[in-house]
Write a structure and sequence with these properties.
By secondary structure, the chain is an alpha+beta fold. It is 33% helix and 29% strand. A hairpin with a 3-residue loop joins β2 and β3. The longest helix has 14 residues.
């Protein structure tokens, strides 16, 4: 491929939400559901972002959302994150 060739890769921005799987009280893990987190976040994004994938590790579970604006997606989900116990000690990062 010549150096002047361009490859279009898209315009969506990515938001990664990392749920802390080790530092919360056991009662939270027993009473809360990560699927509820996915549903509520996608609902809060109201069409500007959608859930695409996830990854489960020993300490973190990652949820991957893509949409028109990372900043807008993050703003839309912040009220839910602040209110749902499983979202304590989470991380949110822009991935695209």
């Amino acid at each position: 491929m010549a150096s002047e060739d361009k490859i279009e890769v898209g315009t969506l921005e990515g938001l990664a939400y990392y749920s802390n799987g080790t530092e919360l009280p056991d009662e939270i893990y027993e009473s809360c559901d990560i699927n509820h987190v996915v549903e509520q976040m996608e609902s809060a994004m109201d069409g500007i972002g959608h859930f695409y994938s996830y990854w489960e590790g020993n300490e973190w579970t990652a949820l991957y959302f893509y949409g028109l604006s990372f900043v807008e997606m993050k703003q839309k989900i912040e009220p839910f994150i602040a209110s749902y116990p499983l979202c304590q000690k989470c991380r949110i990062e822009q991935i695209a």
